[in-house]
Here is the input.
Amino acid sequence: MAKEKFELYVQLVDNTLTPGDEADFIAKPLPGESLNRNGILAEALGKNPGLEPENLSMVYDVLARTMKEALLSGKRLNTELFMAGVAFTGIVEKGVWNYDRNKVRINFTQSRDLADACNNEVHINITAQQNLSIYINSVSAAATRGSEARNTVAAGKPAVFTGKNIQLAGTDPSVGVTLRNVQTCVVTKVDADMFSQNTKSKLAFVIPAELEDGEYEVTVTTQYSNSGVLKAPRSAMLTVHIGASRATPNNPDEPVGTDDPVYG
Here is the structure.
């Protein structure tokens, strides 16, 4: 009996690398719900209503604390979903650790089981094959250039976002760029003086230095259009990671269960 597949909905948008080819598209996931701790617990309770919410919450917290303590003690995690381990950044000059320059980071890579599930347990539904009025296509950052990291930027460093009709224009108070921490839901707006480029296809600005490492939803809101200023603002969103580069495994067929996870 064939295994039931998960339904994943995507939209096709113009490939900005081939502007002359009207038939060339790239796939982007439709914006979906971001699950924090409470959201994950609610999903778990929905699958098994017989669980006691207090017990499930306690187990979740114990597991999270156990994995955090294990990682910070130099142990490596090898789970059904990911592999993780400590990594370090910065040059250690004269054998002395500089806490301002040298940082401890955690590298994550997907497990083989999750990679297999992505390849074999997902059914792709293309919901649109047309030009969208506004979207963010990609982000690049000098701090991660040359690595295999995708959508990774660094706090306090410049980043360049490319897309369609993302130029900031208009007087509505919502116009601008915000970064929402997926975990804490705290929203930070980028100051106007942090921008070095503002065109319809490219925004360049410095990521706020005070942001902690983690997943963020970057939202660009503008009243710009090719024909003038819109009455109502419209927005585009892209999820990025702030922190150390997170490369994908070099060898996706590397078996899970070896002593060392695969790091990029």
